Amino acid sequence: MAKNLSRRSIVFGLPVVLAAPAVFAQGLPGAVAMARDLDQLHAVVVSRNGSLLFAEAFDGPGLDRIANVKSVSKTILALLTGIAMDRGFLEGPEQRVLPLLGRAETGDARDELTIAHLLSMQSGLQSTSGPFYGEWIASNNWVDYALNQDLVDQPGGRFIYSTGSWHVLGAVLSKVTDRSLLDLVRSWIGNPLEIEFPAWVRDPQGRYLGGNEMAVTPRGLARLGDTVLAGGLHDGVQIVDPEWIETSWRPRARSPWSGDAYGFGWFLTEFAGQRAAYGRGYGGQLLIVVPDAQLSIAITSDPNRPARSAGYFGTLRMLADQLVKDFDS
Fold this sequence. Notes:
Layout: E1 8-11, E2 14-17, H1 21-27, H2 30-35, E3 41-48, E4 51-57, E5 67-70, H3 72-86, H4 97-100, H5 115-119, H6 133-137, H7 142-147, H8 163-177, H9 181-193, E6 214-216, H10 218-229, E7 233-234, E8 237-238, H11 242-248, E9 253-254, E10 261-262, E11 267-271, E12 274-281, E13 285-290, E14 295-301, H12 312-327
Antiparallel strand pairs: 1-2, 1-4, 3-4, 3-14, 5-6, 7-8, 9-10, 10-11, 11-12, 12-13, 13-14
């Protein structure tokens, strides 16, 4: 049954009060009518060139309250990595990981592990996600545990989804800058974009978790998408190098579950026939950018319920298709 909401929403930049689902379905775009029937959905924000087209909280904490975006954190961490390169803390994606962490060579393929391999989820190391996640975070050193996983492929080989690899990347950023991930994301992204990033989970050594558990408001997430679509520019300030954004959108691997290509922190696909890039988090958290339509779409959902490709996430893909159709005009 559709949700009967009477609270205020924003549609095409104008406030409206939705009195009943019937009024909504007849007077507003089809994607939002679809969204009303999703009991796992919390909020949807759509903007173009920094101008708000639609924003509504269907459930959850609201549009201006912090939401855990789960593994969309990986996309944010990829942006931080590009900023670190632009600021001279890293030479480039082909730098080897172990020397950056001050670690000795291992004598195996781990010695060839690069920043690019971590960014594209091609580390070759056994995953620490899914059924392996609990054991990983129960370990006394998350970086050591991730790096000591069995090599199940060569670095640069197949796509292996693993938050542990992203935590290694976060440790690299903290090491080369001598700053915490929290400090970096607030300083390099949060402050200039006026996005709040509260503190999140830390490992036993005090390092903030790389690749999961970051939180941001739905409006803030959409603003980040606007900045990416603007070539990393916000209010005249260059936040991210535009060349890094384009580099991040080059396909390097492919997800065995969704079939989508993967770049540096972004899944690459099409919505409504238009090329798009997205970050995805557990439970149905999404940051979608559609370059040709200049659409930024932020979606938050219940972070405690799964969103598998054949289930709720598949429904969100259909919602994204419809959003692009409705608002690409």
